[in-house]
Design brief:
The protein contains nine helices and 14 strands. By secondary structure, the chain is an alpha+beta fold.
Length: about 475
């Protein structure tokens, strides 16, 4: 996929907005120019119509006859399309300009108002002055003053050409200014993105051997980059912790595997060192088989942990079936019965809620098995381990495993769910197994969207709480 430049996107957006602004300014400029020119145009029409009024006069011989003096006609604004006019006296055409074809039938406007019409495909704007008195007066002051109707129109082409020229001037000047402004925009965007480039360069220098990350001064002083720098610092801290945990895990796993292999190797060497009887060989091989089973158990737990972590990363499978939480608890108790009997510990299941959730029943059973195994092994003879199933609300189920054992020291509580962590009891004795049980429990519970926590008081016992989402879902056939 082709990568897009952030700077190019910003420049395109800014230049696009500049072009839009330029178009709006040109449109507003043309509108303003048109308004001003039309105001002047209408004033000119008014003046020319009044000039036509002044050209209607009485004959000088003293009679009451009127005549039109065409020698004083106002000049046309557009010589290519001369002005047209008509003068009506008592409803009859009294004077008319060359080329006057009369008003179109659809033209209707009252006196003193302007209207547009077309004559020979040329747009005109005209003004009509109805029944206005002429300026010339008869010698007899008592005689009535003659009244005329004047229609005067001028071509709009010249005004439109001027408006268009204004738009072209504004657009041309705007485009000329846009070129240096676009260059300044590119320069400003690149300069503004320099802190981001510096931050990326510093982040690119991080490696497994160099965890130091110094935020550039420009990036730290840029408020928009504050969330990014904080996220990078948080991510770096988590990565450092993850690498350290992974390194520690690899070392612990190698130690466990080396110890198991060394035990098997030393047992085999002891058998091969001197001739032995069949019974001695049988006992030695049996011991080797036990050691191999322990190594197999370690590998199996590691594979189980890896599968659960993959499930947590990818999310539960869509075709995953449903599991009855209480039924998985009963199955775990059945499997732990032999160990509980040997330790003289009673395992009691409490609660009667049958809740189901979308999960692998074997995973849930393994969680209860690990928790019950720890509880039974650390409980004194004659005591009881309580496994309680209760529904907190309509969407969650709480499972608790409680014992009355020696408890866990407060210093060990923050580390109980770590891999290969075999905590010490109050007497300083190290725990049994590989230290993977609680880590597997935590991984399984969190993979299914649940939570697990542990409460313990030395000398009074331990209580593990597991909260699981249990929404009603149809059983998978």
């Amino acid at each position: 996929m082709k990568r897009a430049s952030l700077a190019a996107r910003i420049v395109v957006v800014v230049v696009g907005l500049d072009l839009l602004l330029l178009a709006l300014l040109v449109a507003l400029g043309m509108y303003a120019a048109r308004s001003e020119l039309q105001t002047a145009f209408d004033a000119g029409l008014q003046s020319k119509a009044m000039s036509i009024r002044a050209l209607v006069r009485y004959e000088e011989d003293g009679s009451s006859d009127l005549f039109f003096d065409s020698t004083g006609l106002p000049p046309s604004a557009d010589p290519a399309h001369p002005d047209v006019f008509a003068v009506y006296l008592k409803g009859n055409l009294f004077a008319v300009s060359p080329g006057w074809n009369g008003l179109p039938a659809a033209t209707r406007y009252p006196s003193g108002e302007f209207a547009r019409f077309r004559q020979q495909d040329v747009p005109y704007r005209g003004l009509i002055l109805r029944e206005i008195e002429i300026l010339d007066r008869e010698d007899d002051p008592t005689a009535p003053v003659a009244k005329i109707t004047v229609v005067y129109a001028s071509s709009l082409l010249e005004m439109r050409r001027r408006v268009l020229r204004v738009g072209l001037y504004l657009g041309g000047i705007g485009l000329l200014l846009l070129v240096p402004m676009s260059w300044l925009t590119v320069w400003a965007v690149r300069r503004g993105l320099n802190p981001l480039h510096d931050l990326a360069a510093r982040a690119g220098e991080i490696s497994v051997g160099a965890w130091s990350f110094e935020i550039p001064a420009k990036a730290s002083s840029t408020s928009e980059l504050a969330p990014l720098t904080h996220a990078l610092q948080t991510l770096l801290s988590r990565l450092r912790e993850s690498f350290a945990a992974q390194r520690q895990f690899t070392e612990d796993l190698a130690h466990e595997l080396k110890t198991s292999v060394a035990i098997i190797k030393s047992g085999a060497q002891v058998l091969l060192r001197n001739p032995r009887s069949a019974e001695e060989y049988r006992a030695g091989v049996g011991s080797l088989v036990t050691d191999c089973e322990r190594l197999e158990s370690l590998v199996e737990r590691m594979l189980r942990l890896a599968r659960v972590e993959q499930l947590a990363e990818q999310g539960p499978r869509d075709k995953l079936g449903t599991a009855d939480i209480r039924a998985t608890c009963e199955a775990a108790i059945a499997r732990i019965t032999a160990l509980a009997s040997a330790k003289q510990v009673e395992v009691v299941l409490q609660g009667h809620d049958h809740t189901i959730m979308r999960a692998d029943a074997d995973d849930l059973e393994l969680v209860w098995m690990n928790l019950l195994d720890n509880a039974v092994r650390h409980s004194p003879p004659g005591s009881a381990v309580l496994l309680n199933v209760s529904q907190e609300d309509g969407s969650h189920t709480l499972v608790t495993v409680a014992d009355r054992g020696e408890g866990i020291p407060a210093a060990e509580l923050p580390h109980v769910f770590e891999r290969f962590r075999r905590g010490e009891n109050e007497n300083g004795a190290s725990g049994h197994g590989f230290g993977l049980g609680l880590a597997i429990c935590k991984a399984i519970v969190e993979a299914y969207g649940g939570r697990i926590s542990l409460q313990s008081t030395p000398g009074r016992g331990t209580r593990v709480l597991v909260q699981l989402p249990t929404r009603p879902v149809p059983a998978v056939p």
